[in-house]
Each structure stands twice: as structure tokens, then as C-alpha cells.
Design goal:
Blueprint lengths: L1 E4 L14 H9 L3 E5 L10 H6 L3 E3 L2 H7 L2 E3 L6 H6 L5 E4 L7 H10 L2 E4 L14 H18 L21 E5 L3 H12 L3 E6 L2 H11 L4 E4 L2 H10 L2 E4 L14 H4 L7 E4 L20 E4 L2 E4 L9 H30 L1 H4 L2 E4 L2 E2 L2 H7 L6 H6 L1
Helix pairs in contact: 6-7
Bound molecules: nicotinamide-adenine-dinucleotide.
């Protein structure tokens, strides 16, 4: 199969859909890999790395979309890219269609088959192509929060780990899933005193078994949340209710109970955020002040560490990319129901129920599409 990887054109996106090592695997499997010139530059992969891996460099996105049978990307295709997709072509990337009717309409009109990273599932009920980015964002959260706490950035002027004779900062993590666990591990590793709040007792049992000693857990009742947030130097928002907007767990009123200059890092901002006062920010202008509390709410945190994120994403997507290329999407999805869960659009039909519900559009069962 001809697999093509274009340069990402969404603003501030430095990741790339195929790493040189994934390109090499695909070449070993007998596929032809086309990479747009400079596509990997932002992640530290140059054209010569891809050439050494056996890929071919093409100059323009037009040329790439024209020849590739499967297009592998990171972000959802932008309007100009969607116009280049064609019937019978396979698109494998993050799509996030539920809040995006315009993109959904364009993908349906293109006639292409579109598999979304974020809806591919695994045997443990997880989202294996979303998890690596949650791991990255979780590990970044205490790092950016520590920077936000610095005096020059409007913060409390508190060092996360303290020093001998000075207590460490108190960090509260709301949500103990993938983001929350990684955030708590790093904050504890930096020497902070960390508490993770969750509503899943099973999840807290797991965290307590594995991380007892490193950080504590507490049930996320309103009362516990309010009390712990009031004492915190840093609060990290990491909740997720799949398919829904993040619940607002800390109100604007509660900010007045917090320590002046405390830092909020709302990782859940991509689902609307779990603080009433959160609004999405960018890497260029990541923090803002509400009532003396510093908010960091960057919606694409992994972009800050494009190289690590690209490699982590590539490790996760490669086996699926190879299955799609080796077998064709129909057979690959027939063999793996978890990959079939990634099918969002095929030949003008929407095939993902949650997206149909969100956008009020008709959905065709992916199993039916597979048979016809
Ligand atoms: N900003 C970014 O760049 C970025 C990057 C990656 C992930 N995210 C977002 O981070 C959020 C967390 O992702 P994840 O992969 O850790 O999800 P996850 O499903 O692994 O974990 C979510 C946790 O939240 C808990 N939870 C749900 N409701 C709660 C409540 N009311 N109080 C306390 N805990 C509650 C769940 O029990 C679960 O343990 C998501 O919104 C995700 O989209 C953002």
C-alpha cells in the first residue's frame, strides 16, 4: 500500500504522524511510504532520516494526497486537506468529530474511509491511542504548574519540593485516571505533598496499592474537594466522563478560599475544563489570573514536547497502521473489533453512534458497513 504522511498545518502543531522507525517498519512490510518534505522537522526528524528508513520525500501536500492510498496524520484534517481527500482513500488520525459538524460534513462528502485514533479501544476498556497523550499531559502538568507558581509568573513563589526546614507544596489532583496518575507521580517525585481525588473506589484501591507512600487518595465528594482545594498550592484538573463535557468541580466562589497565587492546571480543558473559571489558552500565552489564582489551561499540552509526543504516539499507532496497510481496512477491522470501533466515516456514511447523537445525524452500523 502507498502510505502518505503530510506536514501538519494546524497552528502550533509540531508533531508528525509517522516516525522514521514506523516508516521503516512499513517499508519492511513491503509498503511504499511517502513523507511530505519537512513533515518531521518540528519533532526533530529530518527528511534524511526518512530517506534512510526507505521512505520517499514528496514536496507538496497535493502530491501526497493524490498518490497515497492511506493518509496518516496527527490532527484532524483542516479544510484545505479535507478538499484533497477522495473516495476510497483511507484516513487514519485524530478526528474528534462530535463537536465539529463542518469537518464531519466534509469527511462524509469526500467519500473517504476515516478511522479516528481517539475511538479505537482495547481489551481493558481503555483508549490505547489516546492514552499516550494523556500520559504526556499528565507528566507535564506538575512541570508547568511549578513554573506557574514562580513569583515572576504571578504565582505564590512556592518551590514544589520545599527545602530542608521548609515544607513542600501541597498538590491536589482531581481525577486519578491516566493524566491524574502521571501528574501525581511526577509531583510526588518533585517532592510535593500530593493527594489524588477520584469518585471511583476501584481506581483509588489500585492507586493505593501501587503508589501507597508516594501520594494519598481521597474520595472526591464536594466537601473533600472544597477543603483540599482551599489548602492547595497547586490543583490539577484531570477528570473525564467519557463522551461528556467535564463536570465543573470548583466554582469561581471557591477561588476566594484558595491561597493567593495558587496555581490551577486544568488538563481537562479539552473537554471544557473542570473549573468554572477555566478557558482554553495556547502555548504562546498559557496562563491568566482570575481573582489572584493563576490558571494554566493549554488545550494541546503534548505539543509542547512534540518529539516525545510524536514517538509515544507513533509507538501506539504503528501496529494499527501496519494492520491497515497489510490487510486493507476491511479485513483489519473484521479481525479486530477494537480497530472497528475507530471507524467513524465510510463512503459518505457516519459510522460512530456517539458522533451521530452529538450532531443529530443518521448513523450506519459499522458492522453493516463491513459486510456491504
Ligand atoms: N489538555 C491536554 O493537552 C490534554 C491532553 C491529554 C488528555 N487531556 C484530557 O485530560 C482529561 C483526563 O484524561 P484521562 O486520560 O486521564 O482520563 P481517564 O478516563 O483515564 O481518567 C479520568 C478520571 O476521572 C475520574 N472522574 C470522573 N468524574 C470525576 C469526578 N466528578 N470527580 C473526581 N474524579 C472523577 C474517573 O474516575 C477517572 O479515574 C480528559 O479530559 C482528557 O481529554 C487533555
Amino acid at each position: 500500500m502507498k502510505i502518505g504522511c503530510p506536514t501538519e498545518i494546524k497552528p502550533q502543531e509540531f508533531r508528525v504522524g509517522i516516525t522514521p522507525s514506523a516508516a521503516q517498519e512499513a517499508v519492511v512490510h513491503g509498503h511504499e511510504v511517502l513523507i511530505q518534505a519537512n513533515a518531521g522537522h518540528g519533532a526533530g526528524f529530518e527528511d534524511h532520516h526518512y530517506v534512510a528508513a526507505g521512505a520517499r520525500i514528496v514536496e507538496t501536500a497535493e502530491e501526497l494526497f493524490e498518490s497515497a492510498e492511506m493518509v496518516v496524520k496527527v490532527k484532524e484534517p483542516q479544510a484545505g486537506e479535507r478538499r484533497m481527500l477522495r473516495e476510497g482513500q483511507l484516513l487514519f488520525t485524530y478526528l474528534h468529530l462530535a463537536p465539529d459538524p463542518e469537518q464531519t460534513r466534509d469527511l462524509l462528502a469526500s467519500g473517504a474511509t476515516c478511522i479516528a485514533y481517539e475511538t479505537v479501544t482495547d481489551d481493558r476498556g481503555g483508549l490505547p491511542l489516546l492514552a499516550p497523550m494523556s500520559e504526556v499531559a499528565g507528566k507535564l502538568a506538575p512541570q508547568v504548574g511549578a513554573w506557574t507558581l514562580q513569583k515572576a509568573n504571578g504565582g505564590r513563589g512556592v518551590l514544589l519540593g520545599g527545602v530542608p526546614g521548609v515544607l513542600p507544596a501541597r498538590v491536589v489532583v482531581i481525577g486519578g485516571g491516566v493524566v491524574g496518575t502521571q501528574a501525581a507521580r511526577v509531583a510526588a517525585g518533585m517532592g510535593a505533598s500530593v493527594t489524588v481525588l477520584d469518585r471511583s473506589l476501584n481506581r483509588m484501591r489500585y492507586l493505593d496499592d501501587v503508589y501507597a507512600g508516594a501520594f494519598k487518595t481521597a474520595y472526591a465528594s464536594s466537601a473533600n474537594t472544597a477543603a483540599l482545594v482551599a489548602e492547595a498550592d497547586m490543583v490539577i484538573g484531570a477528570v473525564l466522563i467519557p463522551g461528556a463535557a467535564a463536570p465543573k468541580l470548583v466554582s469561581r466562589e471557591q477561588l476566594s478560599t484558595m491561597k493567593p497565587g495558587a496555581a490551577i492546571v486544568d488538563v481537562a480543558i479539552d473537554q471544557g475544563g473542570c473549573f468554572e473559571t477555566s478557558r482554553a489558552t495556547t502555548h504562546q500565552d498559557p496562563i491568566y489570573d482570575v481573582d489572584g489564582i493563576m490558571h494554566y489551561c493549554v488545550a494541546n499540552m503534548p505539543g509542547a514536547v512534540a518529539r516525545t509526543s510524536t514517538i509515544a504516539l507513533g509507538n501506539a499507532t504503528m501496529p494499527y497502521m501496519l494492520a491497515l496497510a497489510d490487510k486493507g481496512w476491511r479485513q483489519a477491522c473484521a479481525d479486530d473489533p477494537h480497530l472497528l470501533n475507530g471507524l467513524n466515516v465510510h463512503a459518505g456514511k457516519l459510522t460512530y453512534y456517539a458522533v451521530g447523537r452529538a450532531l443529530g445525524m443518521d448513523v450506519t452500523s459499522p458492522q453493516l458497513v463491513l459486510k456491504t
